[in-house]
């Protein structure tokens, strides 16, 4: 697509979901650095997410994490979000922070622990009913540290059983997104270590079970865009957890470590017909040393920039070079799009949307940070750093 009008029209339709946990304190296992003005309640996290949407115009949803975002009334929380111009997005289950889960959650050898974990997942679907959320995001920290510690195959059976029960409970408009991750916190074997495992479980269950690709969850050098192309072809890509990594699951800002990879991924998304709300474009990040709301704004902008470049790929020229076996020609078409500076186009788009062309500067000028710094002097919300 080389028509900039059409590129801008497409960009207007993109929605990037921000995660509630990005707004709270976070850190590594060495230290959590507290920041001023961080939210103390799920409502305040939604307030902050609404600011990201206010300045970017393309982040209308915020994902919740249960029980970090525990409230009495989820329907009321959804109304609270709507009143602030955003909606509740994916519900993320948490079956990794109780002592009971030391040896796993849904794959734990102890049936009582498995039952507890499954009940939590089903509770999360109840929450989705109340918030109107479409997606339940499942990430399991389950695995083993030592060879022989547990029966790898039996753990797959237990996983399949739990997934089937969750699938059964989903409404017609709901889905679960099964996340995979190479390692961590388990180091020897992980129960959902790769896209193939996630895909196989989802395939067995049906269309409401989809794979989610967290860009930070692969071995170094993995061709993530291949996975994206494959899953899209199979109708099994449910969404992304976007972030950047240098070494492991770093959860840095998407597009910071490897903007070219993000472009390649977005190219496959667009090529494969995945550029729609059927695919959840979510951020899964933590801002340990940088300010959080600007970190999210920057991340949303990075996704937009990669998307704009991918939309600019001249599909016709690319295809004819590919068909002619013109290796360098095809690569040149691809690289031309990547090397285009799309920032002026995005600034223009924002102005057309009634936004400030520079969301980072506009947020800094808005006085919102000074306001929350003063208002939120006491208390801290549940989350990674709590
Ligand atoms: C964990 O590594 C995963 O990326 C999950 O998406 C997790 O739910 C998220 O990091 C917040 O807990
Ligand atoms: Zn993730
Ligand atoms: Zn992760």
From TrEMBL:
Tell me the superkingdom of the source. Bacteria
Key words, A-Z = Isomerase, Manganese, Metal-binding
Domain Xylose isomerase-like TIM barrel: start-end pairs: 70-248
The molecular function terms in GO held by this entry are: L-rhamnose isomerase activity; metal ion binding
Listed Pfam families? AP_endonuc_2
> Key word Heme present in the record?
no
InterPro entries according to UniProt: L-rhamnose_isomerase (IPR050337), Rhamnose_iso-rel (IPR013457), Xyl_isomerase-like_sf (IPR036237), Xyl_isomerase-like_TIM-brl (IPR013022)
Q: Which GO terms describe its biological process?
A: L-lyxose metabolic process; rhamnose catabolic process
Instruction: Please identify the protein, giving its name as recorded.
Output: L-rhamnose isomerase
Give the organism the record lists.
Actinoallomurus iriomotensis
State the taxonomy lineage. Bacteria, Bacillati, Actinomycetota, Actinomycetes, Streptosporangiales
